[in-house]
Amino acid sequence: MAEKRTALVVGSTGITGGNLATHLAANAWKVYGLARNPKPSPGVDPVAADLLDPTALKAALAPLSITDVFYTTWLRQPTEAENIRVNGTMMENLFAALTDHKIRHAALTTGTKHYLGPFESYGQSAAETPFREDNPRLPGENFYYTQEDILYAASARQGFTWSVHRPHTIIGYAHGNAMNMGVTLAVYASICRETGQPFVFPGSDFQWNALTDVVDARLLATHLEWAAITPAAHNVAFNVVNGDVFRWRWLWPQLAARFGVEAAGPPNPIAPLETRMQNAALVWADIAAKYDLAEPDIDRLVSWWHTDADLGRELACINDMSNSRSLGFTAYQETPASFFDLFTLLRKLRLIP
User: Fold this and answer.
1) Shared-domain flag, residues 36 and 162
2) What is the reported pLDDT for 336?
């Protein structure tokens, strides 16, 4: 990086924002981490603000000198109409609060639901695989589309460049994150080991056998920085995945082996985690006490519903990265290592036994 850049990471306590803030700080960026309740992090200056409170938000950002904005947050709502209203308002408020700042670049992280539709109509219509960045938008409501349109309008109005990043399932560390398959599966495997149950795949037979991909949060952070500082990558939308593909029937036994549990494929009918883990909170509290774990509240670790949604799909999900490759981004991450590195970190932090 030729000059000092100052990043505002919006959603700095999440899986994307937390890993990004750490990555940028390690690469000599000045980093501000914005969240409603920011957590201490080496090299990251916390900014406490609510994106739905425009007056307080503007006051919190006013004294900061910011060159780059990385938007990595959302608030889940019961309907897509409410997702559009709430998450759209959050973005509008942010860019309004930054009107007097000399922003150079703003990056938006969305996801593969760009090609699959929102949760309430998930996969009912979908783009053809592999998903490509120039696929037309699906019909119907999708708050990702709203966020993109707000970004484009702010860019034209305020004179900064933009990038859009569409990761598939993100594997990495975050504590209290709403969409975290890696941590969810680690907790699930730990419960299976402690209770003597097999590690049953909770998704569909289709997903068990289909080719798919994921992205490591560390690779996503690298990609976000690369797009910000690479002029050729400005004003471009990108899919972001590890670069390999796999089948769950191949990876699942490897995950099970890491926990010393028996791997089992999908039963018929399928056995979603949200249903099977209804009483897991008490089990986890006992496990946490037994092993002196740092987090006894299972709801601060898992997202059963999100893991069920990803593993229960009845359609293929593979992402093409031609935009990144053609512009020179060649980073690669082996997917099993994404999970294994995460499991090692979770044990080090005493979040799993």
Assistant:
1) yes
2) 98
Residues 199 and 143 in one domain: no
Q: Which two tokens stand for residue 168?
A: 């598939």
User: What CATH number corresponds to the domain at position 105?
Assistant: 3.40.50.720
What is the distance between the alpha carbons of residues 52 and 92, in angstroms, rounded to a whole number? 10
Catalytic (active site) residue 113: yes
**272: Cβ–Cβ under 8 A, 6 or more apart, which residues?**
202, 203, 304, 308, 312
Which of these is catalytic: 32, 144, 173, 188?
144
173 is annotated as an active-site residue: no
Q: How far apart are CA 290 and CA 292, in angstroms?
A: 6
Q: What is the pLDDT of residue 124?
A: 65
107 shares its domain with 251: no
Number of domains in the chain: 2
Per-residue pLDDT at 125: 66
pLDDT above 90 coverage of the chain, percent: 92
Domain presence at residue 207: yes
**Do 49 and 157 belong together in one domain?**
yes
Q: What is the mean pLDDT of residues 167-185?
A: 91
Q: Is the pTM of this model over 0.90?
A: yes
Query: Does residue 322 sit within a domain?
Result: no
Query: Phi/psi at 91 (nearest 5 deg)?
Result: -70, -40
* pLDDT per residue as tens digits for the range 206-219: 999 999 999 999 99
State the pairing for strand pair 68-71/105-109: parallel
314: DSSP letter: S
Question: 66: domain range?
Answer: 6-167
Residue range 227-274, pLDDT digits in tens: 999 999 999 999 999 999 999 999 999 999 999 999 999 999 999 999
Q: Is residue 233 part of a domain?
A: no
179 or 113, higher pLDDT:
113
Choose, from 30, 32, 113, 188, the residue flagged as catalytic: 113
262-309, pLDDT tens digit by residue?
999 999 999 999 999 999 999 999 999 999 999 999 999 999 999 999
| Residue 352, domain member (yes or no) | no
Sign (positive or negative) of CA dihedral 343, 272, 206, 306: negative
Q: Are residues 51 and 199 in the same domain?
A: no
* Same domain assignment for residues 34 and 101: yes
